[in-house]
């Protein structure tokens, strides 16, 4: 998640994705189910053009289930097939290949009308950093892919992995940049780990998380951090966490930075509950 995006970097990433897209019939657009809108690349529609796609709401194990269903329905109502998956456990992954077949029925018919023998459908995975692209490819491929050592003078191009009889997947994902302009989106992407902690104010992000989940996690925050969000003023929340955990700096000052890192880690690991940070419309 440590990638920093510069214009040249973005142009190169886009060209790579466009070159790979030309080789496939369909794109599997991976989003983070906790932030299904904020974790989409801002130019994705333009980059994909007419290419068929399926949206995969990944990390659904960490998101609020009802919200994930709402977002999936909202994508479907706009004509984009959407599935909820968990690439870490494999939940929902088996539904992907049939969904690809379903989405490419027209292509199959076209081949048949032209008297062509059907070949396996070709797909690629794309999404912003840390959304679970590699995990998903490994899951779909059904084994840990072995990384072959570089041999001098040999450039290894992208490889295809067979997913059953009817689907081939590009073994390297397309990496796209996230949205940066909206500060709230930045906070959400930091909260979920799409943006490196090295480039954000960790205390600010942790405070944002506590604020975002406070009403739904009153008991959890009480139990885990002895933090009563209804009584303690917001400015002292990280002090409360530090106090409970014994995070102290010299002079008995609460180590708010360490408390913030704790909150971030707990949130990302799902220890505070399952939360969706984007609003369903
Ligand atoms: P990327 O290729 O898009 O950059 O993402 P990658 O697959 O490397 O996944 C990023 C992190 O997200 C990994 O955690 C991975 O295990 C985790 N992850 C991927 N899919 C899911 C999911 O559906 N649910 C959950 N809970 N986690 C998921 P990591 O901490 O970087 O590594 P590790 O925990 O695997 O050691």
Automatic annotation (TrEMBL):
Coiled coil: none annotated. GTP binds at residues 58-61, 130-135, 174. Pfam families: MMR_HSR1. It is found in: Cytoplasm. One of its GO terms (cellular component) is cytoplasm. One of its GO terms (biological process) is translation. Keywords: Cytoplasm, GTP-binding, Nucleotide-binding. SUPFAM superfamilies: P-loop containing nucleoside triphosphate hydrolases. Residues 13-178 form the CP-type G domain. Its main location: cytoplasm. It comes from the Bacteria. One of its GO terms (molecular function) is GTPase activity. Belongs to the TRAFAC class YlqF/YawG GTPase family. MTG1 subfamily. Required for a late step of 50S ribosomal subunit assembly. Has GTPase activity. PANTHER family: MITOCHONDRIAL RIBOSOME-ASSOCIATED GTPASE 1 (PTHR45782:SF4). This is Ribosome biogenesis GTPase A.
């Amino acid at each position: 998640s440590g990638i920093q995006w510069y214009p040249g970097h973005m142009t190169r990433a886009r060209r790579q994705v466009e070159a790979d897209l030309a080789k496939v019939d369909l794109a599997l657009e991976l989003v983070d189910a906790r932030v299904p809108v904020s974790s989409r690349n801002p130019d994705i529609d333009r980059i994909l053009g007419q290419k068929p796609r399926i949206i995969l709401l990944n990390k659904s194990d960490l998101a609020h289930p009802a919200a994930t269903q709402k977002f999936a329905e909202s994508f479907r109502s706009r004509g984009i097939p959407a599935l909820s998956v968990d690439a870490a456990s494999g939940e929902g992954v088996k539904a992907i290949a049939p969904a690809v077949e379903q989405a490419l029925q027209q292509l199959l018919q076209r081949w048949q009308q032209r008297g062509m023998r059907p070949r396996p459908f070709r797909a690629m995975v794309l999404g912003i950093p840390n959304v679970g692209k590699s995990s998903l490819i490994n899951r779909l491929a059904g084994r840990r892919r072995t990384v072959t050592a570089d041999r001098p003078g040999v450039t290894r191009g992208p490889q295809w992995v067979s997913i059953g009889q009817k689907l081939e997947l590009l073994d390297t994902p397309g990496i796209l940049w996230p949205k940066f302009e909206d500060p709230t989106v930045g906070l959400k992407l930091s909260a979920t780990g799409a943006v490196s902690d090295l480039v954000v104010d960790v205390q600010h992000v942790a405070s944002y998380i506590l604020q975002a989940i406070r009403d739904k996690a009153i008991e959890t925050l009480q139990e885990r951090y002895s933090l009563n969000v209804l009584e303690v003023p917001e400015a002292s929340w990280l002090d409360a966490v530090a106090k409970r955990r014994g995070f102290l700096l010299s002079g008995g000052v609460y180590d708010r930075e360490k408390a913030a890192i704790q909150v971030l880690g707990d949130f990302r690991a799902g220890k505070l509950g399952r939360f969706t940070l984007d609003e369903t419309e």
